[in-house]
RNA sequence: GUGGUUGUAGCUCAGCUGGUUAGAGCGCCUGAUUGUGGUUCAGGAGGUCGUGGGUUCGAAACCCAUCUUCCACCCCA
């Protein structure tokens, strides 16, 4: 049998896991500093929790888990006879793999509302699954890293999350630009142009601006039933640079004005001069997801051509479908896979990442193995990370093992060393050899 | 979900219009060097040519199906 894994999934080598954990650890440290706590939710949710939350497209991409037991006996016979897969699904599958972390979190908040102190600040790093067609950087299984706060509509949290972005990327050594906009401002465009009923398609087209260019955006808008003159006006709107300029154009747009007010308050919390990265207002920023209702964010890395490496925003009513009304939330997520790629491209991972083993103990004879194990025990007791070669293989092979694993020191044990009690320590970089007894070796390696 | 693309040794890839024993580089193993790695030299192992059908005297090559890879849409991380 040829070994294989399912389409769109990946194995990770030790070096990749080390790098991933390097990123995770920095992110977690920042989250905890800002008072966010970790939670986890199950891999599987009830299908009814997930369906209908991501639009029709999202439902298609949900992985469904087949019921156990004699599932066909309980299947919808009409749907089965009619070969209607969509209709059949609900009778043979009651669970699905989580599609993102936000909807399970909304369910979690409602379910545990009596145990949670609001505002509740949580972070969550877990894999999610989507039955999309895989491509590079697009998998069936991938990690998401979300940080959210629910139970407060204070714009202080928008400012806090942007600070978190700033601090995380600074710690990772990445320079980024944080783009900020507000869905109410976008709605203001629709109000000003009399396009309130076309708001959704308008934002979807606008979101493609930097990808397809202004001419094609106008064509797309026309396809959605927005006439060319209004499309041109819309593109004219988004050329504004400041909130004051925009305010002047929003005479008949009460929601738009409310959005401007929110952005002003957000900026008053943030002291720009304290930010390491650029934070800029971008009226064309739209974000695809429609549950956002207030401020929205997107993060782009400077110096590389890569899509956004993070994003998020304010959502006013995500918990109401689970029966809890008037809970406002705001959150952002980190695009882990892309951050990984950008850091790889810019060579930002520390060089010694993953080289945790300090020393290898090599043996010249079978009789030396017992001494090797004993020495290893002593070194480990002293907190030195060491690896013991398990046989008296050819020295060439043992030293090669150390080279492959980038272990910087090898201690060599043979008959001479055993009788004298002086171990040979070899520096694998310089090739130098020195003699130590056990105590001296520990002292030398502890420096 | 739509249209395309890819699959040959552990890895990266050659392999002509179908023709006899399927190749290279790197890696791996062995030896030169029976107590010392990275260099060098010599030798060696390793392949159901993604899988299943078909066409043919003959298929890695042509046809069909299927899986996989990557790409453009859709959508998104």
Short recap of the structure:
Helix content is 41%, strand content 18%. With 447 residues, it is an alpha+beta fold.
Low-confidence stretches: none
Biggest β-sheet: strands ordered side by side in the sheet: 1-5-6-11-10-9-7-8
What does the overall shape look like? Answer: globular
> CATH architecture of the largest domain, please?
2-Layer Sandwich
How does this structure look, described?
With 447 residues, this protein is of the alpha+beta class. It folds into 2 domains: 264 residues, Bira Bifunctional Protein, Domain 2 (BirA Bifunctional Protein, domain 2, 2-Layer Sandwich); 88 residues, Anticodon-binding domain (Rossmann fold, 3-Layer(aba) Sandwich). Helix content is 41%, strand content 18%. The protein contains 19 helices and 16 strands. It has an 8-stranded mixed beta sheet. A 5-stranded mixed beta sheet has the order 13-12-14-15-16, with helices on both faces. The longest helix is centred in the N-terminal third of the chain and has 20 residues. It is globular, with a radius of gyration of 29 Å. It starts with 13 loop residues before the first helix and ends with a helix. The structure holds one RNA strand of 77 nucleotides.
């Amino acid at each position: 049998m040829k070994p294989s894994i399912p389409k769109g999934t990946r194995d990770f080598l030790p070096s990749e896991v080390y790098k991933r954990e390097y990123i995770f650890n920095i992110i977690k440290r920042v989250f905890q500093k800002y008072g966010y706590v970790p939670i986890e939710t199950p891999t599987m949710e009830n299908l009814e929790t997930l369906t209908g939350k991501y639009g029709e497209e999202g439902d298609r991409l949900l992985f469904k888990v087949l019921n156990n037991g004699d599932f066909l006996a309980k299947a919808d016979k009409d749907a089965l006879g009619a070969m209607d897969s969509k209709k059949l699904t609900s009778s043979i599958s009651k669970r699905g793999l989580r599609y993102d972390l936000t909807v399970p979190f909304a369910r979690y908040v409602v379910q545990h509302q009596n145990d949670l102190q609001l505002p509740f600040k949580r972070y969550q790093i877990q894999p999610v699954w989507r039955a999309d067609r895989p491509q590079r950087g697009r998998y069936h299984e991938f990690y998401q890293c979300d940080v959210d706060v629910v139970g407060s509509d204070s714009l202080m949290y928008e400012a806090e999350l942007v600070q978190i972005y700033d601090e995380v990327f600074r710690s990772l050594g990445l320079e980024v630009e944080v783009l900020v906009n507000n869905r109410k401002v976008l709605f203001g465009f629709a109000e000003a142009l009399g396009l309130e009923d076309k708001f959704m398609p308008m934002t979807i087209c606008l979101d493609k601006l930097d990808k397809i260019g202004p001419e094609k955006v106008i064509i797309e808008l026309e396809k959605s039933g927005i006439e060319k003159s209004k499309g041109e006006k819309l593109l004219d709107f988004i050329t504004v640079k400041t909130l004051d300029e925009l305010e002047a154009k929003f005479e008949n747009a009460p929601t738009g004005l409310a959005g401007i007010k929110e952005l002003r308050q957000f900026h008053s919390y943030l002291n720009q001069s304290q930010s390491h990265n650029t934070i800029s207002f971008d009226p064309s920023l739209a974000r695809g997801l429609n549950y956002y209702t207030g401020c929205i964010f997107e993060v782009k890395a400077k110096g590389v051509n890569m899509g956004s490496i993070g994003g998020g925003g304010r959502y006013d009513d995500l918990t109401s479908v689970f029966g809890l009304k008037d809970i406002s939330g705001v959150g952002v997520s980190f695009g882990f896979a892309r951050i990984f790629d950008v850091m790889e491209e810019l060579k930002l991972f520390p060089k010694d990442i993953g080289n945790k083993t300090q020393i290898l103990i090599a043996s010249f004879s079978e009789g030396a193995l017992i001494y090797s194990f004993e020495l290893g025990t002593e070194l480990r007791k002293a907190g030195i990370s060491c690896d013991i070669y398990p046989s008296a293989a050819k020295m060439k092979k043992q030293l090669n093992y150390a080279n492959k694993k980038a272990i910087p020191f090898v201690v060599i044990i043979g008959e001479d060393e055993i009788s004298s009690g002086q171990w040979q320590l070899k520096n694998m970089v310089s090739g130098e050899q020195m003699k130590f007894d056990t105590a001296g070796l520990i002292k030398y390696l502890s420096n």
